[in-house]
Amino acid sequence: MAEDSDLERTEPASGRRLEQAREEGNVPRSRELGSLVVLLGGVATMWVLGGWLYQRMAMLTRAGLSLEPAQTRDPALMIHALSDLFTDGLTTLLPLFLVLVIASVAGPIAVGGFNVSTKAFSFQASRLNPVAGLMRLFSMHGLSELVKALLKAILIGSIGYSVMKARGEQSLHLMVMAVEPGLYEFAQMLLASTLTLVSGLVLIALVDVPFQLWQYYSKLRMTKDELKQEFKQQEGDPQIKGRIRQRQREMARRRMMQEVPKADVVVTNPTHYAVAIRYDGASMRAPRVVAKGSDLVAQQIREVARANQVPLLEAPPLARALYRHTEIGDEVPAALYTAVAEVMAWVFTLRHAAAHGATPPAEPSHLPVPPKLDPAHGVAGAPQ
């Protein structure tokens, strides 16, 4: 049962899934809303500019039916006149064309937002497969589109029949009216009938937009397994990331261990902590911590130091302070300069004694470590 639930698309689409769909040109669209916006734009333009358009088109019609004698004898003049009429007509209809273009773009954007994707134009051989086309035609989506088209035709047809029945006598009356009053009356009747039909399209759009959004997000729903795989792809497999971090720690520890033989001294606690210090007066302003560790790592540092004859000094307060307040590569804190200076003086004296066969100096004790830098100061049972 658990495996079946993992295969069911019960989870909403993730942000990445929606982003990928948009990149492929797959965004929610409502054809009914697009048609409604275009029709409303056209009707609104005719409402506002109808009188001006009528006067301009009437003027162009008169000009087109009027011929100068010279034009009948010279084809060039005739072509020039036709060119002027075409330009004037295009200029007259340009506001209507602009409104329709803007409306045709605004309709789709209102649902799915603005989106540009070249993947939608890429060639796909599956689109040429007639079997796949028939399957899409008889799929649930095709059936829903068919039902929607039938309902739309019934609604619009009913509205159109009601309009024609209500304005039947008015239409017959136009036959006995003069031309200009008849055209004006016809335009008013056409506009009112169009607005009535638009009201039906508004109802269709109010139903279609939520349906298209529901259908779009339903198709993009994901299974629990898909969500897990996507999380692993984005965030990385936790096991792999854990192994990477482990390898990184091992590599850092290996590099650190390579610096221990170059150290001048290793300060210990004596078993819990170990801090390796190096000082080069020509390139360093103050001694630096080149390695540090606790417990097993501290043991490894001590073993490497012994194998490479690096002096070990048991100074628990100083070891604890250096371990707590420095990172690898840091200079020792200024508050520990005095204590570290005594340690470095002991190291240099030890080297000199070894080189000349003299008695080794005694290890420094009671190093001046400020209590506030010693994390074990005043703590009972702290590691010594």
UniProtKB/TrEMBL annotation:
Residues 1-26, 357-384 are annotated as: Disordered. The chain crosses the membrane at residues 33-54, 93-117, 146-166, 186-211. Gene3D superfamilies: 6.10.250.2080, secretion proteins EscU. The keyword Transmembrane applies. Residues 361-373 have a biased composition (Pro residues). It is found in: Cell membrane. It is a multi-pass membrane protein. Required for formation of the rod structure in the basal body of the flagellar apparatus. Together with FliI and FliH, may constitute the export apparatus of flagellin. This is Flagellar biosynthetic protein FlhB. It comes from Niveibacterium microcysteis.
